[in-house]
């Protein structure tokens, strides 16, 4: 059983009617609903307004994979909570960062770059192409799928070259984007997945849900021993 | 259930008494025994002397992960069988290449390089270090393990930079070696694992067996759609 | 001074009037002309109809970077010459493979995969995006450039994940393609660059010429020592 | 002409007699001396005690490649200066981080991981092996070189998998270490190189100096256009 926590800043839903219409119970509920339909996953949610943003040490210790959606309130996420999430990733917790989470404190801290990009909100078509059909995150997907309407994100996306590039998106307006990127940091596995603008029903799309569920399975902890660091006695006699 | 076929050229065992003493039923049997102790794997073996080297189209079609051990008879492997294995890797079959299999036709074909290296048979100590503790192939391993006696393989190992470097070996005689390397080719996942000289009981070592079983699970087919290639009609109207 | 040899199968130009109109002296001459305008490069050409396809051992030994354009006559390239080129790449010669060279014997041998892809000849627009603006192959380029008309190549392109992904192309008809890919194999550096259909004037495009010249400088031999392989005495005394 | 700034915290030299004996003018002077013997480099130094640590905006704007040595005073480096260096890396300045610089604020910020490792100060032998002989940082090096005495650094080194792994070290006491690692972040190129304990004369070693000079040439800015980010109008008409 993989324990998943879906985190959402849950702000747009309170102040923007058009977001509430699409996601009446919050983006996190739509994402969690998709995961609850899967076998072998145990799903909970957490949001910014909760104490400690719902991410107490106990919750994180009981989380195998954390999913992160944020946008307008990145700066309100407490630095201490960011450190706590970072330590858990170093210790093996998986992390899936969605869409505008590219600018979250935790993603920028893990990437070490600006994570900036081009964007345009014009309800256009995105076509997500699988460029790594050997990857488990591509399981049960066709070779491409379309999302319309979606926001455009365009290159250059200022991230480290991903360890694995799973998806590249084509946009109607003429741009491309590295839409599915995996990273390992410490013992943690990280998956960035682009789609998911808050005013569009992206998280009800069955293939978007398929990708997120595949990502959760891929990002679950590896089970390797925690490395020992610091001063170390020789294993062989020194000459 | 992951279907595994363990392939061995099965030649040393017939002509070298000291190999037969260590592996009386063949190296493949020792490797297969290790895998049969695992849950969720269905294991068969195949060897060079069998018709079509035991690798008929039917056997390969029923194989999720193929394990390859060869050394002195690489050149006797039929080119047509090599092509058949290659096509199956392109279509998603996993492949685990062990030790002297670095010089097999199939590994050289998949790598595109000479796959040459330094070597020395002196019964020395190898210490295998985990350098990617986020990788599932490192599951349930300590941060290093030792094998003695082992043959030395040393850098420069003429392979493409691995997609993921899981292990680096330290050798008593002063060399290092990239001992655990993963690759994706076509839809297939490939794992090269260094240890396993034929006169040493390496394949009875519990942690070597752990690595091979982890490798099998990692290399199982991803389940993504088979890409369509060739002439392609436009998905959008051309201006 | 970097010594460059531009190789072309030089077949379309003899039998297809529309190719001869665009490249009256052959594709190789247009590519070579672009390079001859650069400082620090010494350029020669070689073609399939010449003895040994113009790629004698002496020519290859005097070549730092080989550029390869082929399409309809891949199968006529002698296997021995392919081996010779391959050995030189292993020993450090750079190789730039253009467009339909994706299906050349030498590229397929170096990649180890089918190198197949989607394609369409419809004179559409290609927009080449820089996705690695830290790469010297992107020097003096804008963040994207357009080529129209061009042939479409689409994913999934069956290559190993590139060591570095420099360009991704957007196509009018709805596809994307990893258009600029680098690899190291042996001591050689390889750059695959997509554009260049034989009936279009792509190799006169100043930015396409910029990319090829940048590629030549990047692919020039590194100057590291040739590794010694085979049996190796211990550097430390064995216990 | 590549403009290099060698930065040193310059603290051990003031308080530890044994460091001052080895590096009477500071570690930075020994490193700078090595570089000044090279063609095409213009070298200056900067140290922690200087105003703004010697790294004013003007100095950084005039620096193509910054070299960083720090150890006991990482925490005294002003966060604002770290941000300034980070922005310059994003904009294309090269960065070479030496030895104990693995724990500097700038390296940890760029990596996104703890950058922790094993260590031992026992004056033992390090043998640095070239594992990427196609890399320009390996130019003019033999296939391995030895440094004795050196401090041991051992795996697991908590860094992102390097874009390119150039060196792996063997240590007398039984450990291995990824000693030469390259990264691209933003438009900047980063090279981490392990050797250089402050009480040992490592920076007078001719091959260590060769590596650092090669690293400088490799890390120099690529010359690609600065990407434009933010809101972006469509390049094609939207349907």
What is the count of DSSP helices of chain A, taking H or I runs of 4+ residues?
Answer: 7
Unreliable residue stretches of chain A: none
Oligomer: homotetramer
Radius of gyration of chain A: 18 Å
Q: Biggest interface pair, residues each?
A: A-D, 43 and 43 residues
Query: Structural class given helices, strands, pairing of chain A?
Result: alpha/beta
Numbering strands along the chain, what is their spatial order in the largest sheet of chain A?
2-1-3-4-9-8-7-5-6
Number of strands of chain A: 10
What is the general shape of chain A? globular
- Our measurement of the CA-to-CA distance between the termini of chain A, rounded to an integer number of angstroms, reads 50 Å
Q: N-to-C SSE series of chain A?
A: EHHHEHEHEHEEEEEHE
Mean pLDDT of chain A: 97
- The proportion of residues in beta strands of chain A is 25-35%
CATH architecture name of chain A: 3-Layer(aba) Sandwich
CATH topology of chain A: Rossmann fold
Main pleated sheet of chain A: 9 strands, mixed
Count of separate structural domains of chain A: 1
The helicity of chain A comes to 10-25%
Protein name (chains A, B, C, D): Trehalose utilization protein ThuA
InterPro entries (chains A, B, C, D): Class_I_gatase-like, ThuA-like, Trehalose_catabolism_ThuA_prok
Domain ThuA-like (chains A, B, C, D): 3-219
Organism (chains A, B, C, D): Cohnella fermenti
Explain this structure.
The structure is a homotetramer of 239-residue chains. By secondary structure, chain A is of the alpha/beta class. Chain A has one domain (2-219): Rossmann fold (3-Layer(aba) Sandwich). In chain A, 24% of the residues lie in helices and 31% in strands. Chain A contains 7 helices and 10 strands. The first copy, chain A, has helices spanning 12-15, 17-22, 27-36, 57-61, 79-90, 105-111, 206-219; strands at residues 2-8, 41-47, 65-69, 94-98, 118-130, 144-154, 164-171, 176-185, 188-193, 230-231. Chain A has a 9-stranded mixed sheet with strand order 2-1-3-4-9-8-7-5-6. In chain A, a hairpin with a 2-residue loop joins strand 8 (176-185) and strand 9 (188-193). In chain A, helix 5 (79-90) packs across helix 6. The longest helix of chain A is centred in the C-terminal third of the chain and has 14 residues, at 206-219. The first copy, chain A, is globular and about 70 Å long. The mean pLDDT of chain A is 97.
């Amino acid at each position: 059983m993989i324990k998943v926590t879906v985190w959402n800043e849950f702000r747009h839903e309170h102040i923007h009617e058009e977001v509430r219409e699409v996601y009446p119970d919050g983006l996190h509920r739509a994402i969690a609903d998709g995961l609850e339909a899967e076998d072998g996953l145990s799903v909970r949610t957490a949001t910014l307004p909760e104490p400690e943003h719902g991410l107490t040490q106990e919750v994180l210790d009981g989380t195998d994979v954390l999913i992160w959606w944020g946008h307008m309130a990145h700066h309100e996420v407490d630095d201490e909570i960011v450190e706590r999430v970072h330590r858990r990733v170093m210790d093996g917790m998986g992390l899936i960062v969605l869409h505008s989470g590219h600018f979250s404190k935790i993603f920028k801290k893990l990437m070490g770059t600006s994570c900036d990009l081009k964007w345009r909100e014009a309800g256009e078509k995105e076509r997500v192409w699988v460029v790594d059909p050997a990857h488990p995150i591509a399981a049960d997907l066709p070779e491409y799928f379309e999302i319309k309407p979606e926001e455009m994100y365009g290159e250059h996306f200022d991230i480290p070259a991903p360890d694995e590039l799973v998806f590249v998106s084509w946009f109607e307006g003429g741009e491309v984007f590295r839409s599915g990127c995996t990273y390992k940091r410490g013992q943690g596995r990280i998956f960035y997945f682009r789609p998911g603008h808050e005013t569009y029903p992206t998280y009800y799309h069955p293939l978007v849900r398929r990708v997120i569920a595949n990502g959760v399975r891929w990002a679950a902890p590896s089970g390797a021993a925690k490395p020992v660091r610091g001063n170390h006695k020789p294993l062989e006699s020194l000459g």
